Amino acid sequence: MVPTYGMMIEIFKMRLPQEAKVVAELSNTAKQLIAELEKIRDDEDFILGVMSNARSEDARGKLLDYIHMAKRMGDSVTSDDIAILSLTMGQEHE
Q: What's the pLDDT at 74?
């Protein structure tokens, strides 16, 4: 079964109950990033991991820009690329 955007919201709420209000009000950037992540790897753990690492709007925007730039350049983006980049962003905020 492929998770839909609505299902992703519910998963966020279950896994991160303290952030349920924030999750319910995801920005357009976050929504677009989730859609792009689903195209790269349709796996809820991958998507939740990336979104958890890239918590700020700025970090999510940078990931989205990276994905779009790679597409324009004709490069493929793997889930490993995104996971490593998001981990690096997460560590910068610690």
A: 95
Residue 93 phi/psi, 5° resolution? -90, 0
What are the structure tokens assigned to 89, written together?
A: 């962003």
Half-sphere exposure at residue 56, Cβ-oriented, CA atoms within 13 angstroms: 10
Alpha carbons 31 and 33: distance in angstroms, whole number: 5
Distance CA 70, CA 65 (A): 8
Quick check: 64 and 51 in contact, CB under 8 A? no
Query: What per-residue confidence (pLDDT) applies to 36?
Result: 95
* 3-class SS string, the chain: CCCCHHHHHHHHHHHCHHHHHHHHCCCHHHHHHHHHHHHHCCCHHHHHHHHHHCCCHHHHHHHHHHHHHHHHHCCCCCHHHHHHHHHHHHHHCC
